[in-house]
Amino acid sequence: MGTETALSFSDFALAEPLQRAVREIGYEQPSPIQAQSIPPLLAGRDVIGLAQTGTGKTAAFALPLLSRVDLSLRFPQILVLAPTRELAIQVAEAMQSYAKFLPGFHVLPIYGGQSMGLQLKQLQRGVQVVVGTPGRIQDHLRRETLKLDRLQAVVLDEADEMLRMGFIDAVEDILKHTPAQRQVALFSATMPEAIRRIARTYLRDPLEIRIKSTTSTVAAIRQRYWLVSGTHKLDALTRILEVEDSNAWIIFVRTKTATVELAERLEARGYACGALNGDMTQAMREQTIERVKSGSLDIVVATDVAARGLDVERITHVINYDIPNDTEAYVHRIGRTGRAGRKGEAILFVAPRERYLLKAIERATGQPIEPMHLPSLEDVADRRTSQFKEQLTTVLETEDLDRFASLVAEYQSEQEVSLERIAAALAFLAQRDRPLVPDAPPAVPSLDKAPGPRGARRLEERKERAPRERAAAGENRPDDTPMILYRLAVGESHGAQVKNIVGAIANESGLPSRLIRKVQVHDDYSTVELPADLDRGILEHLQKVWVAGRPLQIAVVGTAERARTSSTRRSVSPKADARPVLSVRKSTPEDGRTDGREVKKPSRRKQERDKR
């Protein structure tokens, strides 16, 4: 998680279902803000937490407050106010993951730009936690569609940012609608006078916690980031591993389980790779480190805790495969290279929806992180060819080849083949297990760098042209691809539409829409046909994709018919040139999105209706 503490999460008196979720997520040790906030919040005390964005504040308030939620009651017991839609969604998703083992738990993100009708439906069904932006929360209070009279706790997340955005009056108005005896947790990076006044007025004898930022980066480390789609991170990683001029690598992931899974996948692709996590004994950990030092391992996949204090001179590159939630954890991670005056490389993978964490890291370190281009297949081929030539040179200079020269001469005489053809055949045999020109993987929707306004327009133009170009190439013809029927845990009663489902799957999986067939929307679930050979990693990712405020939770129903006809209601086979519309679950303050993709704007009449 971040900076060292002597505590573990098991030391806190959290409810057992939350302890279980924390163990499954793989959190090993609390960050400083978590270590100091969780005990008083569990005890019911008001708290002021002064800490930078990216220090683990969400878990600091979510875990203790969720421990006290009464699941038998279906009205809001916790309200979290956040300055932006993006942060509201992030907090809601984090709380949902922490509450994974709480039966009947419901959290609702509420923000502008989302259908008011959908929010009303979900509020009527009953929720225990509401996470929202001040403006939309006020809208519901005016309509009397949200009752806060039985709240147990209120959280003001990034209070100084809400002040900066002009929400402070709205925050005060909302607090006036809450019970006098509710608990309040206020988190802020700074404490301007307006926030201090809020604290004096609405908090009761608060405990003030200050987390001093100690982040500083090493000038010898070159820092880069790649804006990546989570579905294709492994393909991106292997291209980078191939092309970078490196010695040894350490790849950081968030959880212990992920260290083993990623290490196994890299080993299957031919890399000398090992895992390093908190479940390993000290002897196993030392053995792995020794193998890196000796050169028998080139790559270690590690968690933050397991890599503390690791100092191996061979490590030239650090990759943040999972972006850390804690800015200090980022500094500790990249500090595994560039030590003792040596040069080092740090690469950060950033999903489009994680850009706010990238900005938080840049603010905390005071250094910009430069965008990088994902190496192309041509770059990989050039690198492999160069390495092959180097191997030839080494063999020619160091090995006794007389016997093999005689064998080649004998073969040439027998077969009457030129030396060039024989050499080409031998080169083919030598590279057969690792082709010099790699096969193209499934399409990687690469955002090689964070696009500026012009780049974003070009990207959208390419999106618009692509379906027409595919149609011209004859790629839209029906085929006999084997399909499997999947069930999705989202339906009409949740506000889902065919276009939301198709758009989410197409954009998150990279599948062409011609391979997303026979979408049928029922009352509380939907079904869809997808290719039978769909990559397991894509399916795992789709499990977590949200549509209409709910995760898809995609699950196999059975082998689907290949017939294109459909007689059930709302059943469609989307045309390949239909531009998919993403779920409103992904959003930004500007346009309701975090993934950089274009969305269709609602009509002016619908916008006015939603405002009302």
UniProtKB/TrEMBL annotation:
The keyword Cytoplasm applies. Residues 457-478, 587-612 have a biased composition (Basic and acidic residues). DEAD-box RNA helicase involved in various cellular processes at low temperature, including ribosome biogenesis, mRNA degradation and translation initiation. This is ATP-dependent RNA helicase DeaD. Keywords: ATP-binding, Cytoplasm, Helicase, Hydrolase, Nucleotide-binding, RNA-binding, Stress response. The gene is deaD. The lineage of its organism: Bacteria, Pseudomonadati, Pseudomonadota, Acidithiobacillia, Acidithiobacillales. It is found in: Cytoplasm. PANTHER family: ATP-DEPENDENT RNA HELICASE DEAD, DEAD-BOX ATP-DEPENDENT RNA HELICASE 47, MITOCHONDRIAL. It catalyses: ATP + H2O = ADP + phosphate + H(+). GO terms for molecular function: ATP binding; ATP hydrolysis activity; RNA helicase activity; RNA strand annealing activity. Belongs to the DEAD box helicase family. DeaD/CsdA subfamily. Its main location: cytoplasm. Its EC number is 3.6.4.13. One of its GO terms (cellular component) is cytosol. A motif (Q motif) lies at residues 7-35. Residues 38-209 form the Helicase ATP-binding domain. Residues 233-380 form the Helicase C-terminal domain. InterPro entries: CsdA_RRM (IPR034415), DbpA/CsdA_RNA-bd_dom (IPR005580), DEAD/DEAH_box_helicase_dom (IPR011545), DEAD/DEAH_RhlB (IPR044742), DEAD_box_RNA_helicases (IPR050547), DeaD_dimer (IPR057325), DEAD_helicase_DeaD (IPR028618), Helicase_ATP-bd (IPR014001). HAMAP family: DEAD_helicase_DeaD. Residues 437-478, 564-612 are annotated as: Disordered. GO terms for biological process: cellular response to cold; ribosomal large subunit assembly; RNA catabolic process. Residues 7-35 form the DEAD-box RNA helicase Q domain.
